[in-house]
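Field reference: sequence -> structure
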Amino acid sequence: MCRIAAYLGPPVALNRFMLDPPHSLMVQGWAPRELKYAKLNADGFGFAWYDDGGDPAVYVNPAPIWSDPNLPHLARALSSPLWIASVRSATAGNPVNHANTQPFADEEFLFDHNGLIAGFHGGVQQQLIRALSPQRLAAIRGNTESEYLFAVLRQLLGDNPEMPVETALAELMDSIADWAGDQQCLLNIVLSDGERLYAVRHALGDDCPSLYYTTDDEMFPGAQLVASEPLTESAFWQSVPEHQILVLDPEQPPELLPL
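Structure field:
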C-alpha cells in the first residue's frame, strides 16, 4: 500500500506540489488519514516527470521521505508541468529496496500502483509470467505485483499500438479479475503517457482504496491533480467513483469511464 499524488498543469516546482501543501505526501508519509492496511508510509518514496526532451525521469529512495537530505534541494530546483509521486508502505514479501520503489518508468510511460494482490507470489504471479513475453519478463527488476502489472500493461500497448491507454487499463483489470479468482486485489493506478494522466480506482474482493481529484484548487491555479488523499483543505476535491478510470487532459475537462 502507499499514497500517490499526480499533477498536470502549468510548470510547477516539485516542492510546491510534493512538500508544501498542508496534507502533502511528506505529511502523508507519517500521518495518512485514509490508509486502511497500514499506519505509516515509511518504506520509501519516489517522484517522476518528463525531462526537456520528453523522456521519462525517475528519482526513488527506499528510505522514508522525511530522511532524505537531498529532497529539499531537488524539490526547489526541479520544475515540470507533470509530476507523479508516491510514498510507500511495503507489503509482506516485497523487500524495501530501490527496485521495488515506485514510480516505475519505461521509454514512454510513468506508472504508480497503490494496492496489493493477496497471495501474489506463487499465485497470480505465475499467471502474469505466462502472459509476458521473455523480453518483458527479463526487464522486471523487482518482485512487486506493481511492477508485473506495469509490464503486462506495456505489453498490451506494445502488441496493440493503436489501442487507447484507457482501453488497455480496462483490459488489464479484466485480466486480473480472471487470474485472481476470489483473491483480494486493490488496484488503484496512476499512469501518464507524457500528455495525459490516467487514474484507476478499482478493487476486487474489498473496498477500493481512496482516490480524489480536483481541477479548481486555489493552490494550483490552472492545474488538474489526483491524489490518494486531498493535498489541501479545498472543498473542490472530489472522490473518483469506484471502478472507474479518470482521464485528465490539459485541453479537455476530466473524463470518467466505467470499467
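Note: The chain has one domain: 2-258.
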